[in-house]
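Quick log. Single chain, no ligands specified.
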Amino acid sequence: MAKSKSEKLKRLVAVQRHLEHMAENDLAMVSRQRAEVLDNLEAAVDAVGSLEPVHQLFSSLYASQITRLTVTDHHLEAMQQVHEQKILRERAKADRLEDNMRDARTDEERVAADDQIYDLVDQKILVDQSQASSKLGRP
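-> predicted structure:
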């Protein structure tokens, strides 16, 4: 039997929700990476500001590390914004498909109810015709 439009849309909604979930997982991964970079950046800044002689020897190394971590943080921030927008897009698509699915289900239920009413009317007409013909057939 062919699937109804609402069943097809229900499947599409499930797929779209899965895509939304995958985008959320990607965002979580980027957020974790960004948190790690920020922790490393904070440690490097603390090391540059330290008065210990060991850290003062490596100040140029720390400065280049801070620059690299800052660039990485900006890159991850941009990726995070892209993933947030992707989540919003996927969620909007899923919501729109879900609304279409509900509309299709309502239409299908309405058509089924109409068909039941037409069947009842047809049955009533057949009963009335058979009663009328049986009355005419009697002497």
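The chain has a mean pLDDT of 90.
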